[in-house]
Amino acid sequence: MTLTSIVKPRWISWDSETVPQLNFPIFFDPSGQNIHYTYGLHRRCSSLTGTCEYFPHSRDCQNDRYFCSMWRSVGFLMSFAIVIEGMTLIAFIVVLAGGKQKREQGWTVVSGLLLLAGLIQCAGMAIIAFLYDNDDRFFPGWKLDISWILCTTSWSVLFFLAGGIAASAFLLPSEGGYELIPDTEREE
Fold this sequence. Notes:
The structure is a single chain. The chain is of the alpha+beta class. Helix content is 53%, strand content 15%. It has a five-stranded antiparallel beta sheet. The longest helix has 33 residues, at 65-97. The radius of gyration is 26 Å and the shape is elongated.
């Protein structure tokens, strides 16, 4: 979900339909043209041009460096969250492939990494929500879109998994180990 939210340019979007027009001389077009703008972390798309372009571009940042800094920070945070999630996967494999001691102690590393990735994604999602609420470029009609929802779902699942792993480590009984066989001498 995290990777999809980064790649898909649909964090914030705007849809509108143009007013139906009378085409000269006698044709009436009852359906207006659908206009669709979407902002992603690294691209902005428009249905008017039919293309996507790099975003935020330098011309977008001339008057509002604060917005660009915040938007680029979210791009960095989400990319960093992907790295942390990769580390979590590697740690999970090491813990499962390791011995009893790694399985009993490794949950702290795995749940800590899950929690860290969730916190990073939550911060990125919150910054986008703040910009959506407070930046003048997002007038009424704009909405938080599917990438924002994917990010929110992703960090929620990460928190749930971190809590579940930590709870299972405390609540489930310890893995049974080998019992020593008493050393009895044979009587002959």
